[in-house]
Amino acid sequence: MEHADENYKAIDPNVLNKFRQKIQAVEDIEQVYLSEAIREGTVITILVKQESPVLSQKISYLMENLLENLPKLRFRIYNFAYAKQELEKGNLYFIKNCILGELISKGSTLEKLNLRNREELETLIEKAAFELENEIERINSFTVGISFYWKRKEWAGAAFLIHQKIEWLYRCVETFAMGKPLICHKIKNHLNYAHPFIHGAGPLFDTNRRINIQLLDILDRAYIESRYSSGYDITKKEVKILSKRAEIMEQQVREIFSFRLKECYELLEKEKLSAEIPLEQPKIHKPAESPTEKTDQTKEHFLAEKLLNNLVMLKPHDTYKGKYKVDLLYVEGYGELLFTIRSLLYLCINSLEYGDFKTYSPDRNPKSNIQDVLELVSRLIPIEEGDLLDELREIVQSRS
């Protein structure tokens, strides 16, 4: 993800006026924002009432005509409600391209996203940086697991976690650089989604080289085959290369965020924004806060919000009073859930059959650990769905 220092010319006023006239004729478009920066170039963000394939196709056709004259221009289409929600979360894409961008078309009475006072803007930018560090810290939990499997020479397990780390790094950079992550486990799809849009992003895997195509294939296979197939094979050398790529990508993600953050502060300081952003009127009867008090309050606010957003594992149980339910994992469907149950059962069976329990210290009590895992598995079994299948089977049989 190398940085480019080309200077982008501002969009031609005549071209912009023609585009504005065409875009205003399209129903369901709420607002359109234009953002121009030296490094990232020209980005147009189109906010609609409700996303739909037909509307997106219509807008894309208009944008393609504009792109003939401006090949460096890129655009994104989002639901207005989604953009507003992400903005409150501190999504840097919407801070930079909407709040600090220029509103070039407004087709409704909805509030403009860039009506913020300077203090609110600074808080949102600080929040964006804070959220990035939280996300990187969470992603780095995979690094601990990679090290664990590396020491045990379990290359398949290490490959799976490397895949997870790279996938979530992609989702991270896609969120703050594009506005929305691609929810997909294939790294190949993230390459196609992210790199054409993110200016300054060089591919982690150059698909013009055969070795990189092979590594990418091994990495994508790791997500499924390393867990569900005994035939998945990967060498120590390949794991080492992929692990290094993951480290490089983490550094690149930080760099991509850093120069976008810098551009936000530069835009904030420009005199032309001072007229567009209404400054908050001083409150006569309220004593001014010292910089230290303001910093402490900001830290306390972020800490309280971090606790609120991250204390999500335990949730009050719907049936049992005083008990909690745990969000353990996410799966793509019942198929993956059943595969997970089967893998845990195989793990317990193999441990009971081949485990050398004598080598364990008495306080670890491996048989008790296996019992805990089996109890967990029993709670993952979709019993209600099984009952539903029986009912459906009876209905089908009665009609046949």
Would you mind describing this structure in some detail?
The chain has 400 residues and is α+β, with helices and mostly antiparallel strands. The chain folds into 3 domains: 13-112, 2-Layer Sandwich (GMP Synthetase, Chain A, domain 3); 128-261, Nucleotidyltransferases  domain 2 (Four Helix Bundle (Hemerythrin (Met), subunit A), Up-down Bundle); 324-399, no CATH class. Helices cover 60% and strands 8% of the residues. It has helices at residues 13-24, 53-67, 80-89, 92-99, 118-139, 141-151, 155-178, 187-194, 210-228, 236-269, 271-276, 291-310, 334-354, 366-380, 383-399, and strands at residues 29-37, 41-48, 74-79, 102-106, 314-316, 324-326. Helix 2 links the parallel strand 2 and strand 3. It is globular. 22% of the residues are buried. Residues 1-9 and 275-288 have low confidence and may be disordered.
Question: Layout of helices and strands, plus pairs?
Answer:
Layout: H1 13-24, E1 29-37, E2 41-48, H2 53-67, E3 74-79, H3 80-89, H4 92-99, E4 102-106, H5 118-139, H6 141-151, H7 155-178, H8 187-194, H9 210-228, H10 236-269, H11 271-276, H12 291-310, E5 314-316, E6 324-326, H13 334-354, H14 366-380, H15 383-399
Parallel strand pairs: 2-3
Antiparallel strand pairs: 1-2, 1-4, 5-6
Helix pairs in contact: 1-2, 3-4, 5-7, 5-10, 6-7, 7-9, 7-10, 13-14
